[in-house]
Amino acid sequence: MKKVRVRYAPSPTGHLHIGNARTALFNYLFAKHYNGDFVLRIEDTDIERNVEGGEESQLYYLHWLGIDPDESPQNPKPQYAPYRQMERLDLYHEIANQLLKKGFAYKCFCTPEELEEDYKKQTEAGIASTRYNRKCLHLSPQEVQEKEAAGLPYTIRCRVPDHKTYQFDDLIRGHVSFESKDIGDWVLMKANGIPTYNFAVVIDDHSMEISHVLRGEEHLSNTPKQLMLYEMLGWEAPKFGHMTLIVNEQHKKLSKRDNSILQYMSQYKELGYLPQAMFNFMALLGWSPPGEQEIFTKEQLIEIFDEGRLSKSPSMFDKGKLAWVNNRYLREMSLPDLTKLCYPYLAKAYDLKDKSEDWLNTLVSLYQEQLSCGSELVGLAEQFFKPFHVEEEAMEVLTWETTPIVVKAFLKRAEAVLEWNTDEVRKILKETMNDSGIKGKPLYMGIRVAASGYQHGPDLASTLVLLGKDEVLERLNKAI
Ligand code: GLU
Q1: What are the phi and psi torsion angles at 94 (to 5°)?
Q2: What pLDDT is attached to residue 260?
Q3: Which superfamily, per CATH, for 88-243?
Q4: Which atom of ligand 1 is nearest to the CA of 10?
Q5: CATH class name, domain 387-479
Q6: How far is the CA of 197 from the centre of ligand 1 (A)?
Q7: What is the structure's pLDDT at 412?
Q8: How far does CA 62 lie from the centroid of its chain?
Q9: Of these residues, 256, 312, 430, 441, which one is catalytic?
Q10: pLDDT band at 254 (very low <50, low <70, confident <90, very high)
Q11: What mean pLDDT is predicted for residues 143-153?
Q12: Ligand 1, residues 16, 219, 226, 242: which to mutate, most atoms within 8 A of Cβ?
């Protein structure tokens, strides 16, 4: 079997998007599963859309996810380099000339205005899929020469063969076929001498010896165009697999403008999601493992990856599931590591000047079970940082007739203790129960609200310890 070589070929038009990240991830898993190569190629021919730093950003977030290419512009293999399309223009020109010579392509001098005019006419005549009218196909060699000599700009078009069927077995969708009559003579080379995506991609995939092309479903209709070039050039085509769409919770195709879902890796990193969790989550976005288990390390995923289990139906981006997966990973973290993850968020929101490392570790430990991302701690733990105030809905607890009784009883015990740790505080809570004869909700809620101002929070004894003895006593006295 030929060596597996796959590629991820982003355009450097922005940060790493969830859709692209997933494409990269499945290519990576596929490559690693078969001991193949995972190649990163930069498709930068859409020069107006390229953004400064786009390539670095792609690489940075791929690396963050743990997806490191075997070959890339930064790590080239001489026989395949260069890895940026704009550095490969000579090659595209050479192949375009070959196609011209063999009559598989022709020069088209139609101006954008003429083309638009003609497409308009076709639309008005009720033709649904408008296509190039082949005017320039019929130019004589002499006419072509004259136009060129006059310096008229031209594109190079592929002359789409008549009456042909292009078919292939898609790794995901099975047998797919397209008729050449549905495809107009398309542009290989633009007038500015830059190739179109469909042209460059074939030359690159061939010359980089790509064995499998796994990409998004939006490229399915490009595949017959690419297949026709493989055939014209006498090259063996790679195997294709088109992954289904990612949809939102309303089952609509994820659009970059959809603000209900964060779509860029940078956003998840900023919020304190873990790269391993993102990797795991994305692997389940359009692929399913055989059993019930859903949490896997990268190594396990490489081991069990099977392209036959890539989904045929759209995969829903489930935010709740992502939170769940990330929570599983946060739970497994060591406390110092989790504190390190959460620290910058807390430091940005609150004054941590007199909080010790121990105090912070204890705080984080109280929320470790429930935390779904690092930044979430800021909101969850606000009662430990904000100036004391009683929540609107907690006010009522202070009017219960049991509240002053339990608060007084607790105060009396608390004032007498020397140590202020959870064991000790638990003990005096029990004593308060015996002293006052009040237990359960009236006991715990009364003390909690009087001391913290909040109805809910982590374990009461731990809450009181974290708030500190002096602070608690002062607040309880005030409550009375
Ligand atoms: N540059 C293309 C994209 O970002 C790559 C498509 C392909 O994998 O063939 O969509």
Answers
A1: -60, -45
A2: 87
A3: HUPs (3.40.50.620)
A4: 4
A5: mainly alpha
A6: 8
A7: 97
A8: 10
A9: 256
A10: confident
A11: 98
A12: 219
43 CA closest ligand 1 atom index? 1
Name the residue at shortest CA distance from atom 8 of ligand 1: 215
Q: Give the whole-angstrom CA distance, residue 99 versus residue 105.
A: 5
The Å distance, Cα 215 to ligand 1 centre, comes to 7
Query: pLDDT by residue (tens digit) across 341-366?
Result: 999 999 999 999 999 999 999 999 99
Active-site residue flag, 256:
yes
Average pLDDT of the chain, as a whole number: 97
Instruction: Yes or no: say if 265 and 15 are a contact pair by the CB < 8 Å rule.
Output: yes
- The CA R_g of the chain, rounded to the nearest whole Å, is 32
Look at residue 176 and give its three-state secondary structure. strand
Query: In the numeric block, which tokens belong to residue 337?
Result: 């590591």
Q: What is the pLDDT of residues 13-29, one digit of tens each?
A: 989 999 999 999 999 99
Which pLDDT does position 423 carry in this prediction?
A: 97
- For the chain, give every domain's residue range: 88-243, 265-332, 333-375, 387-479
What are the percentages of helix, strand and coil residues in the chain, rounded to 5? 50, 10, 40
Query: What is the spatial distance between Cα 229 and Cα 235, in angstroms, rounded to a whole number?
Result: 8
Q: Reply yes or no on whether the pLDDT at 240 is more than 90.
A: yes
To test the pocket of ligand 1, the residue of 8, 11, 15 to mutate (highest count of ligand atoms within 8 Å of its CB) is 11
Q: Can you give the pTM of this predicted structure? A: 0.94
Question: Which atom of ligand 1 is the closest one to the Cα of 218?
Answer: 10
Best of 6, 8, 197, 199 for a ligand 1 pocket test (most atoms within 8 Å of beta carbon): 197
Strand pairing class (37-40; 105-108): unpaired
265-332 has which fold? Answer: Glutamyl-tRNA Synthetase; domain 2 (1.10.1160)
pLDDT attached to residue 256: 82
Distance 43 CA to ligand 1 centre (A): 7
> Cβ < 6 Å from ligand 1: which residues?
9-11, 43, 201, 215, 219
Outline where 12-140 has alpha helix (H): 18-33, 54-65, 89-101, 112-124
Per-residue pLDDT band at 33 (split at 50, 70, 90): very high
Work out which ligand 1 atom sits closest to the CA atom of 214: 8
What is the whole-number distance in angstroms between the Cα of residue 196 and the centre of ligand 1?
A: 12
Dump pLDDT digits (tens) for 97-137.
Answer: 999 999 999 999 999 999 999 999 999 999 888 899 999 99
